[in-house]
Amino acid sequence: MTTIRSFNPPIRTLMGPGPSDVHPRILEAMARPTIGHLDPVFVGMMDEMKSLLHYAFRTRNELTLPVSAPGSAGMETCFVNLVEPGDKVIVCQNGVFGGRMKENVERSGATAIMVKDEWGKPVDPNKVAEALAAHPDAKIVAFVQAETSTGALSDAETITRLAHDQGCLVIVDAVTSLGGSPLEVDAWGIDAIYSGSQKCLSCAPGLSPVSFGPRAVEKIKARKTPCQSWFLDLSLVMNYWGGGTKRAYHHTAPINGLYGLHEALVMLQEEGVEHSWKRHTDMHEALKAGFEALGLSFVVPEGSRLPQLNSVTIPQGVDDAAVRGLLLKRYGLEIGAGLGDLAGKIWRVGLMGHGASAKNVVFCLTALEAVLSEMKAPIAAGVAVPAAQAVLAAKGY
Amino acid sequence: MTTIRSFNPPIRTLMGPGPSDVHPRILEAMARPTIGHLDPVFVGMMDEMKSLLHYAFRTRNELTLPVSAPGSAGMETCFVNLVEPGDKVIVCQNGVFGGRMKENVERSGATAIMVKDEWGKPVDPNKVAEALAAHPDAKIVAFVQAETSTGALSDAETITRLAHDQGCLVIVDAVTSLGGSPLEVDAWGIDAIYSGSQKCLSCAPGLSPVSFGPRAVEKIKARKTPCQSWFLDLSLVMNYWGGGTKRAYHHTAPINGLYGLHEALVMLQEEGVEHSWKRHTDMHEALKAGFEALGLSFVVPEGSRLPQLNSVTIPQGVDDAAVRGLLLKRYGLEIGAGLGDLAGKIWRVGLMGHGASAKNVVFCLTALEAVLSEMKAPIAAGVAVPAAQAVLAAKGY
């Protein structure tokens, strides 16, 4: 075979839907020496990890841990542990990830009752209430708080309350919200939640923080059938991640990835999670002012926009792939394409974690304006950065 | 909450059953800047990864990729994709991991026919032949080539031939063998195989290289029921890992972990996989001479011993946990405990990847002899290192 050399990636600025730029402190943490997954020092780190996840999720749930695989596996962990064959699950879909939830429900041998909203809109709580009324035997309501495919924020508190009123549990996708948008697992009573390391935590992809409340734990304990996944079976995983000094081997934990997540959560604690939420909103406001000055319009209605994921409509006549390609080639700037029906129609611009910065806001506006101008797109020139800067100045940055 | 600081792990020497010591080049690779999972440069790295895995597995199987989770998920990938409800699967068990295969079979809705051998012994091909004769309707034979819980090496070539003679596919656990012991996926006709990053590749834990041959792909394509796991469904994963420049998003790949695996495989190619196999054997011979000089006896019969995992019986009257605890505390040396019925009865000493070195051989012998002497264990003093060194010298190290 041809000799293959070490891989040295280029330096990018990641302003897509994730992975976001990983902070140098986190990259450095991942390069620390590997130790054993049963080493007492590592076990101490695991205890800290749980405390840090409690802080980030705003919960005291005992069953809180990082699944040893990306967010999709966190999603599957929730479904295969909580859903039993024959269950009826109400699944809200307003983008790609609601559809993935449906797949998870059906592959768990259950029935998915779909509550559909237009892509780009939040989940409509009235439709959820109607579905609950029409299906009094539903066991679970599953929805995405922060729909990464569109940038829509749904009202997790209200949907959870509606579900609880009818005795349903909720499963919440917080992959893109954790650390970037208000999220109150205990105050809102969320029963099961999963997130990802590679969004607003600025960590490398590969881990999925999850948390399960008392009602969820009860449902898991009362299962009549074993969890269909051995790898994701929480009754087994907890022998390793459960409290105490006696940790039983289940699978080999991704040690260095966990170093990175620990560092990311330490940084979140240093900043303060509420400050992080505010910073994401402030940077979104600045970027929004710039986008609007350029003449770009948002996909998601005001009031339901995720600050960390800004979806805008691609101006008529502009070649999606050519713009993204040139931004990447010339400026090393990655922005996201649309998914599914929105492919070629929207861009998704992420402001996540430490990438939610004034630097990234003006860089993105500058590069996008330059490339769109070169391509003779119908945009207003010379006004985006000043508009963004005015917001930044007003907010004290 | 109490303020939690950055985690700085101690420096260990990892001579347990894995994770093994991660080479500094690999640690450094994991700290390189994260880029997007659809970045054309990353896609180029994925193509290289496939070539490197082809080299390591000695295969040309198109369906060869690293699963984005630890070896246990690689195991589950094989079972949930290849096993259908109602199938009959012959599972060979001679340690912990055969038992885990049984769990996977049953959770896939299939029946496991167990072929049991004593822990520490290799799988007996005669028993496999008997089971095949007794169950002509079996679809798959699953076995562990390198049983990490005991250090026994089974004859993968012979078991595969027996299975094929009856039209069965094989699923092979090569978690501990890949890179450390001869393994010929194409020459032996192995249909499905999984491994782990954290053993003889000296990489951090968290990834599981897998490979599927043409018969396995045919069985996957002919499935009557969808794969029960969305995350591990190869028909979906292949839209991302499949060849060509068009890669469809499935889940966010663990970018930095993949940098590490790429570097580990580049290093394997630099050394040459056959040289790596020989080095593991040479270091095992040296360690064995030292252990025998100390008076320790091997658990696995000569001829079936894995060079990379040396299981020895704990001398009578010696406190297992006290010895391992002191080795760790005083010398930063981790060796492995026994699992299951062998807990407290054996130690498992790994010589894996770049840890299969003369330095580690003499360090382990020195530290173990010192600690056992201090604890007044019945061992011979002052002879282990000379015995090991004689082997090293004879082999030209």
From TrEMBL, chains A, B:
This is Alanine-glyoxylate transaminase / serine-glyoxylate transaminase / serine-pyruvate transaminase. The modification N6-(pyridoxal phosphate)lysine is found at K199. Belongs to the class-V pyridoxal-phosphate-dependent aminotransferase family. GO terms for molecular function: alanine-glyoxylate transaminase activity; L-serine-pyruvate transaminase activity. InterPro entries: Aminotrans_V_dom, Aminotrans_V_PyrdxlP_BS, PyrdxlP-dep_Trfase, PyrdxlP-dep_Trfase_major, PyrdxlP-dep_Trfase_small, SP_NH2Trfase/AEP_transaminase. The keyword Transferase applies. It comes from Methylomagnum ishizawai. It holds the Pfam family Aminotran_5. Residues 74-338 form the Aminotransferase class V domain. Keywords: Aminotransferase, Pyridoxal phosphate, Pyruvate, Transferase. Gene3D superfamilies: Aspartate Aminotransferase, domain 1, Type I PLP-dependent aspartate aminotransferase-like (Major domain). PANTHER family: ALANINE--GLYOXYLATE AMINOTRANSFERASE, AMINOTRANSFERASE CLASS V. Substrate binds at R348. The keyword Protein transport does not apply. GO terms for biological process: glycine biosynthetic process, by transamination of glyoxylate. Its cofactor is pyridoxal 5'-phosphate.
